[in-house]
Amino acid sequence: MSLQIGDKAPAFSLTDENSVVHNIPDPNGNWTIIYFYPKDNTPGCTTEACGIRDMYSTFAEAKILVFGISADSEQSHRSFKQKFDLPFTLLSDKNKIVLPLYEADKIGSKRKTYIISPDGVIAKIYDKVSPATHAGELIRDVLELKKGK
After folding, report:
1. φ/ψ of residue 146, rounded to 5
2. Nearest to 53 by CA among 93, 16, 82
């Protein structure tokens, strides 16, 4: 059965690039974006991450948490984050436990994004992502969703 808008987001804990554990959905009740991507340092993934980086101040001002998730290691995430000066958290699902929960496990890792509301409910799902325009799409959609809450 696939995840739908309105479903409770599956809860999980993963470590970031510095081995710090993060719990999703956010226990503090923030709007949260989790975006799944195939691999650090690949062209599409770099474009997507840098797009979010370039608009990150807007996410931060709106108190929207952003997490990138792939099966890459913490060390790979640390290097990727430093190389491209990424201001948001990258989570490692190297054991591929969360990828299938969020239906992002097709042939390695699939590019897929979820917006999770402060009450832990899936508010929006992106099955098809254009790396070059995704950041702007996310900002627009989360701000719209926040107005409606």
Report:
1. -65, -35
2. 82
Quote the domain boundaries for residue 131. Answer: 12-148
Domain count, the chain: 1
Helix (H, G, I), strand (E, B) or coil at 138: helix
Low-confidence ranges of the chain (pLDDT < 70): 1, 107-110, 149
> Is 143 a member of any domain?
yes
Report the sign of the C-alpha dihedral through residues 136, 137, 138, 141, in that order. Answer: positive
- The answer to whether residue 68 sits within a structural domain is yes
In this structure, the number of other CB atoms found within 10 A of the CB of residue 51 comes to 19
**What are the pLDDT digits (tens) for 74-96?**
999 999 999 999 999 999 999 99
End-to-end CA distance of the chain: 27
How far is C-alpha 71 from the geometric centre of its chain's CA atoms? 13
Residue 5 confidence (pLDDT)? 96
CATH number at residue 105: 3.40.30.10
Identify whether 45 is a catalytic site residue: yes
- Of the listed 45, 91, 138, 142, which one is catalytic? 45
